[in-house]
Amino acid sequence: MAAIIVVALVFGMGDDEPTVVADSSSSSAVAAAPIVEAAPQKTAAAPTESATPAASASATSAAKRPRLRLAPGLCDNPKTRSKLPWRCLVVKGNSLAIVLASMLALVPHAARADEPPAETPPVETPAETPPPEMSRADALFQEGKQLLEQGKFLEACDKLAESDALDPAIGTLGLLAACHEQQGRTATAWREYGETAARAEAVGDERATFARERVKALEAELPRLLVRLAKPHPNVMIYRNGIRLMPEDLGIVVPVDPGTYEIVVRWPDKPEFRATLIATSRKTAELEVPDPDRVATASTAPVRPDKPVIPTAPSPQRIGAIVAGGVGLVGFGMSAAFAISAASKNSASIPIEQSCGSAATCQKGKELREQAFAAATVANVGFGIGVVGAGTALVLALLPNRSSTLAREKTQAQHVQFVPWAGRDVAGAQFVGRF
Question: Which of 38, 57, 149, 153 counts the highest number of beta carbons within 10 A?
Fold first, then answer.
């Protein structure tokens, strides 16, 4: 992901301070192009004896410090807009959630605190060592932020979640919400943005505005599930992907992350009920859990037996078709053989009769011609037998087998049974037959 992550260090600064914007792609810091107005020259009163030297020095420094304000139109200039405070930034594309959420997270831990530090006079105090869990939270925060910039959302979300668990902070939770949004876990991100806004509003932090905007934007995209009971049951246990649902979760629409959800319903002394719901963006998947008594009755109702395999002997009609087909094949074979013989003998008799010089030679040619005529006659008869046999086999194969139909009807009549059955609150009977 080639998006440039911009972190605006504007938290805890007054309007009279220059705003500094840090860019992760550069190690330099750029001031936000302020216009300096010289403070009006006033004659400073001589400090009284009761004034402390520190207070006098502070007053003198404040009088000499110039007032800073942003030049008009800087937010509208694309060349200077990226150097202005985070409220002037306009981000486009897929990096919106990451960049704006990075605005929620400040680099040092002091900037991640929920309340801006109060202005106190400089007092020399010994340096305090931060608690181990706070140092660990800072390290996890920095690791998670770097992983998020690299597009490693799974690892980044784990680091940020652990950091917020050790040391809850507005910036950490806001960045975690952006990470889950990039993962496609819209419902999780929606809840975390809401909690971020609540934390920020509790201390008057401006980041609450951005968090509320993300809550509103994601709310329209949320997938939702609705699971309700057809009949209330005191001991029912319902699980969604292995997590038990509380009674207050039933009958209401619940935002969830997109995906597939397996619903398992268990009652005492009843078979469990299972169903699968698919949650998609902007849609509500609904499931009504049936009455456990109906589920038990349906599961104990008699099941129609499978069709039995009854071996049967070949029918006479089928045997006749096979025999007729065989006769037809023999007839066609005989016809072909004698036809070839007739053609051969007829061809041999023609040159002999044409060159007939003696009575013996002429007689031989005559005999060959007569044998050719006899073979042709047999070939014609064989062809006729083949046609009749093949036609008979085809007719017998296409006609319905009447004897097999009667036998099957007789067998089915013998397997019709009268079967009573009963459930918890209902009873009845039915005829069961093999078809």
Answer: 153
